[in-house]
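Our collaborator T.R. sent over the components below with a one-line note: 'Predict the complex.' Nothing else. No constraints on interfaces, no templates requested, no preferences about which chain binds where. So this is a plain run: every listed entity goes in together, and whatever single assembly comes back becomes the starting point for the next discussion.
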Amino acid sequence: MNNIFVYLEIEEGKVADVSLELLTKGRSLAKELNCKLEALAIGSKLKTVSAQVFPYGVDKLHLFDDKRLAPYTTLPHTSILVKLFKTEEPQICLMGATIIGRDLGPRVSSALGSGLTADCTSLEIGDHEDRKQKKTYENLLYQIRPAFGGNIVAWIVNPDHRPQMATVREGVMKKEIFNSAHEGELIEYNVDDYVSEEDFAVTVIERHIEKSKVNIKGAPIIISGGYGVGSRENFDLLFELASVIGGEVGASRAAVDAGYADHDRQIGQTGVTVRPKLYIACGISGQIQHIAGMQESSIIVSINNDKSAPINSIADYIITGDIEKVVPKMIKYYKQNTK
Amino acid sequence: MSYNIIVLAKQVPDTRNVGKDAMKADGTVNRAALPAIFNPEDLNALEQALQIKDKHPESKITILTMGPGRAAEILREGLFRGADDGVLLTDRAFAGADTLATSYALSMAVRKIDSFDIIISGRQAIDGDTAQVGPQVAEKLGIPQITYAENIESIKEHKVRVKRRLEHGVETIEASLPVLITVNGSALPCRPRNAKLLQKYKHARTVTERQTENIDYIDIYSVRPYLNLVEWGVTDVGADVELCGLSGSPTKVKKIENVSFQAKENKRLSESDEDINELMKELIENHTIG
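Returned assembly:
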């Protein structure tokens, strides 16, 4: 009762990074709240899941293994969560802000009448005072996220409803092994007690998985472009620099919205969070939602016409100038001065 | 075959152009201070509905929105592009709603609209980016949902096939009607306004708009009933006030911060050859690149 639950996202028997990151966060929240960390595995062929997640400090693993539960469809996974949560009464439930998490989370929150906050960039524990009702709530989950297109940061709480639900994007939290020898308790369920025939009204006809061609998350150098790059053609300059110095090309949301770059390159709260050793921001003004996804880069270079662009405040080097002039100079210098 | 389709749409502040007075002291959005637009992915949703109507011309598209009085603008925008009907859900009691209170109100309006086969909405709105209202409306209505749709491939014998996006790939899924579908921004863009429909519907108004505007030929609303946009409040849809607006919202905004970043010590450079070369030299020498 009153524990922290993490919904595990599992593809082909492998637990997704985002879920392991949430277990790490869940572990530290559980310590702070002096409660247990529990995980939910729903799918098919889940034999190795316990070995994958126990080292992250899972005290209890709830396992629902049935071939009808993979690939993921909304209704059976919802039914399991809703029914289990009614008996387990978790205080917090965390999910990845992935396509699955963002499909499942709201459905579950609606069925339970509990609040859900999407795409949190930070989770903390603290008290909350409701001045109108003169009531103080202790140890609530602060669900912190940029809002309103990234123009502000909102702190959200769910004072009266449980579980307090939140989704977090991949890469926002850091995964860390808690104890490689840690063993939790494994509970296997009879799936038929939790789902009904109607839950399988939606069927997957065909599924096509492709490995993402872009790997920004792991790139040590990222050349990132914003709306200020001006066109898809100008993005080619960024690609050229990236290929010369060995990096990947990222983009801000504004650049993606404008069609200058593809969605899988988007960095920020609604894209990927990155921590490269070098981040070169080209024509990026620096909305909060973007900065949330790159501020932990080791070295940040900002190239911008506007010498007071907000991103400059977190940059190590600020180049005031045109991308079309600066980037070719960088390429030229590098080519001339390295083998 | 013909289908009754409801498109859920939202008028949103253009979050790309936000000024200082955009937020009220209580942490909610001051919509009056911002340019308002048709939420982009809701236009993709409308196009999917229009595609169904192209193939099944007897189908009927009702566009439903919740918001302040001026949200009627997007109903007209929908009619100009081919929707048949518009419903505005508006009431002070809806103010300050989080996604759950919003989906409750919308689901009550959907129940009142009549029978429906398909509900289509955008995946998410650009002011909140939560993608929660679609699935929550589906749950409240007890119907299946298909999120992140790229295309509605076919509807046959009350089964719909939808291609949807996955984290790394795509899948095609089949569901029985009724169903709720949320559409991704990468789906087909919406067709533009149709000149004939623009002429036909340019005077379409809600009751409140008719009362507040000075309209010369007020008779046209009885002669041409299709110009009457439906306007409903809490009691019209039989909603429980306690479940609407702020009081119906389990999530509360504790505080809002304008973010200022811890300014770093930094070096300012010009675009001159010397400055750029100096920077590159430094980055190569300390093994950041190369």
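Summary for T.R.: The longest helix of chain A spans residues 17-33.
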